[in-house]
Amino acid sequence: MSLVQAGLIAVLFSVGTFLVLHRSLTRIILGVGLLGNGVNLLILTSGSVPGDVPILGEGGTELTDPVPQALVLTAIVIGLAIVAFLLSVAYRSWTIDGNDVVEDDISDRRIAADPGVDEDFGEET
Amino acid sequence: MLILLLAYAAAAAVCLAGHRRVDRSAFPLSTLPHVATFAWLAAVAPGVLDGTPLVASIGWVPELGLSVDLRLDGFGLLMGLLVSGIGALVTTYSSGYFGPSADRARIAGLLGVFAAAMLGLVWADGLLTLFVFWELTSVASFLLIGTDDRSTTARAAALRALLVTGAGGLSLLAGLVLLGIAGGTSTISGLIAADPTGGVVPVALVLVLVGTATKSAQFPFQFWLPGAMAAPTPVSAYLHSATMVKAGIVVVARLAPTFADVGVWRPVIVVCGLGSVLLGGIRSMRQQDAKLALAHGTVSQLGLIMILVGLGTPATTFAGVAVLLAHALFKASWFLSVGVVDHATGTRDLRRVRGVRRLGVVATAIVLAAASMAAIPPTLGFVTKEGALEAFIEGGAGWTGTVALVGVVLGSVLTVAYTLRLAVGLLGDHSVGEDAVDPDHLHRPGATLVAPPVLLAALGLVLGLAAGPTGAWLARVATSLDPASGEGALYLWHGLTPALGLSAVALTVGTALWWTTRSATATADAPRSSFTVAYDRGYEGVLSAARRITGVTQSGSLPLYLGIVLLTVAGAAAAAIVTNRSWFDLSAVPVANSGLELVACVATALGAGAVVVARQRFGAALALGGCGYLLAVVFLLQGAPDLAITQFLVETVTIAVFLLVLARLPQRFSSAPDWAPLGVRLAVSAVVGLTVAGFALQASTARTEPSVARDYVERSEPEAGGRNVVNVIIVDFRGFDTLGEITVLALAGGGVVNLVAAARREQRRKHLLDGTDVEDLSGRAPEVWR
Hints:
The complex is a heterodimer.
Chain A lengths: L2 H18 L4 H23 L18 H32 L8 H8 L12
Helix pairs in contact in A: 1-2, 2-3
Chain B lengths: L1 H17 L7 H24 L4 E8 L4 E7 L1 H24 L6 H20 L3 H19 L6 H32 L4 H7 L5 H16 L8 H4 L5 H10 L4 H13 L5 H20 L5 H22 L2 H32 L15 H13 L6 H15 L3 H30 L19 H19 L1 H12 L19 H20 L12 H24 L4 H23 L14 H19 L3 H21 L3 H22 L15 H23 L8 H12 L4 H9 L1 H36 L4 H4 L8
Antiparallel strand pairs in B: 1-2
């Protein structure tokens, strides 16, 4: 772990978070992708110090830790699966209402607008 | 004991499950457990009354020391006899009362459930056992009050009763648990033996008393009981006069001899009890519905019993037990009689009822029950009221006893007045209503309807005449509560005592009160109880407050929720990192491991920035891809060529998928309204990013044990025959991880295929509606045509 790597993690997480907090599904997916990159880098750098490639018989003496690499390798592939799935959700959303915006929950908005009306117990007492 | 409870449960289960098939036989069937219990109790009575309680215990959760503890002592015997005896009469009565249109199986089943719970309650020795049965009776009561589930009033009344008694049950639980901890025991008998003292005991006792006051409809919780009269009359007679409302009294009676001397106990009892005595009496005077008048009268009478057993002196305890028996007999008889009147005339309205005298023996029952309620000699009501006054005069409870005496005499005056008003209103033919009942067209009640109330009323008279033996028997019952109360005795005539004088005063003044107020209370409807109004306001207030809070916290905006969640998590982590402080020591951390790494990292960060800045979807996707490729370089520099290759391939596929989808979507991002200003969103993002970076720095220096990798590296070649350790880990040492990964991939792939297929179908349908050529889209005929 070096300061530059920590800085890159900070940038990836900040930018990813900022994108995820948007309403456009496409931006959210881009954010998820960046967050995934950030997580992968976080696991790799905080779990190992740079060293020789963990392949035996290549003359390396100070092998870098292979376990974080194995974990991250799995994570990268799963990240692809998630992004692909989210993209098809965005596509589906677009075919339904012509945009890919995450709308507010309508019943929640209604309660917030008029807390006095009680639909479920309207006839009470 | 357990067998009997199970018998009730079995009969109830048959009724509830069989439903329509057992319709006609439901009530006769549910009478059986009552009869069996009554007979068994009668058989074991001599032994129990001689002071050897029967004990049963089965493990419930033995690991937690929880068990169902039952203990049948003298008082439990009396209550058991009441529950099963009146239960048998009520079920018999019900078989005549409910017609085929009523859901007889349901009512019979629920009555059985209630009876089992009530018996469990009066026999319970375990504190938690008591609570469980206590709540079961509340639930059964709720279901029975709401029998007429199409009536809004009945539903509201049922809910009110459940909420009040349920909340009280929680208070009781808290009190019992505190007492149990203070006494180091989990049973009532253990608690009484331990007699715990200390700061927590008064608090616990107040909590217990609140619970008992809700259940026994004591001031200021009395308002649910009149509402409970929405239940069918047999249910009211059983639950809401004879048995369930005595549950609070049972608990108080068991605890009072031990705890009555604790400072807060007697004042609370006297305030609650007297409030109920007076309020119930006054409100009973103003009811036009005979059943409601009885309900308010019940509140008043329960107040008297509560004071008696609550004062906790040997004499009052004995008198309380005696009044409890008398009240159960005459009040159940009253309710059942009113039910007969309702059945015969079609109304319970005192202004309309006429011709009850022609019902003969029922009228006699009403007269007897009224005499017992108003404490007119020689009924049991008189004998026990005398005993109560004697006990108050005897003293022993300090100033609270004196206050109670005055209040109870006032209450007796009211009781006489409302009893007279009720009896005369029912039996007299001076109806004032225009739509009065025609006394020539009465619906003659059958024997099953008439017998139970007459039997109960007659029993009140016989036991009153046999005051000596009755008193001796009740004294043996009372010794189980307080060994010193065994000297109690009842007398039909014991000379010209102050108690007799007070009784005479109560009778005279009560009669005068009735005579003077008789015209004033003849027609007007009773106003709505201010307690009910206050309760309803509070209830609605809670509901609307809940909705307001929901409105504030549940804005419906997903990004807002996400922001709050992220900020909370990051804030908590940041607090931990800052307080740890070790990350301030960055001297061991290099700025960069190599010059190339510095360049690669900065370039990747720029790529990430480009994703945000891009105005078009296409550009943003390309920037994401670029960022990913550059990250592969960072991986490579970290000594991870496998990762770099994978990242490179995956990033390529990601860009391809992005481009496929983006080709369908509009070029530019839609500008939806934002949930928060830009500054806030940037701040949240910065906090999250910096927290994670701080975490990373701390985590990288936090290792205390050597990596498991050493083992993997050593075993890689001899065991797995591979030299690339990362590959060996993935496909061999941690092969199940990879299996999970493949499963996720497969699931996601399936999801993608389905979503895309659904989207295609949708589009085809749209195009079909628009009349455009569909063939262009898919190259084959759409499914909707087939």
